[in-house]
Amino acid sequence: MLEPMSLEQYSSAVLALLQTVLEQEAPALRTAATWIANAVAEDRLIYTFGTGHSHMLASEMFHRAGGLASVSLMIEPGATFQVGALAGTLLERTVGYGSIIAERYPIEPGDVLIAISNSAANAVVLEVAQAAKARGARVIALLSRQYAQMKQSPMFEIADLVLDNHGPAGDALVEIGGEVVGPVSTVAGAFILNAVWCEAAQILHRRGLPIPAYRSSNMPGAEDHNARWVAHFKGRVRHL
User: How far apart, in whole angstroms, are the C-alpha atoms of residue 156 and residue 160?
Assistant: First the structure.
């Protein structure tokens, strides 16, 4: 009997996982969207932060076509493999480093922080989340509940809302030749974040409020459209 193709195994597993997220996380996703819409309506900022590969998801929401202009990405090169993968892994576990990162950003009451960590076990993301909450921001954690529970993560006590990507502990989905391959947290995380933003945009539209979304710079009229939002957030969003 022929073994199933790995492409089909991974595709089937990812599609099933996304369907599970949609079915089981819908109330939490709508709550997150409402919080984001409320923050946008009050001209507050949505901070995003993650270390290691989770940094890609924090960047996913920042200054991109169709993305939310209110997003302020929290960038720390030392925790994103730019200093090297091994050094970055050590740094994201370094106690006290997250507090230093948080000090660089003027998080205030009414803002929202989306803290992204699949295991929610590393010191840096926990410290950033703690700092944001101490300053009065709402904290949304995007994680794998199974993985975070296995690691006995304090994030469940820190976060005001948890979004579960429903990925397995260890992230990978497909077993081949005794190894498990095919990580899923990035796929699921991008789906969750963009779905939440679409829902938040719909809420803003229903309220008759402008939707602060960027357009692709190569589309007609995009430069003028985007310049409006850049001018509005310049000086507040640190990395514009």
Answer: 8
Per-residue pLDDT tens over the stretch 162-204: 999 999 999 998 888 889 999 999 999 999 999 999 999 999 9
Residue with structure tokens 């947290």?
Answer: 185
DSSP percent split of the chain into helix, strand, coil, nearest 5: 50, 15, 35
pTM of the model: 0.94
Alpha helices (H) along the chain: 6-41, 54-60, 85-91, 97-103, 123-134, 145-150, 155-158, 185-206, 222-233
Residue pLDDT, tens place only, 45-67: 999 999 988 999 999 999 999 99
Angstrom distance (rounded) from CA 115 to CA 27 = 19
Domains belonging to the chain, first-starting first, are: 6-233 (3.40.50.10490)
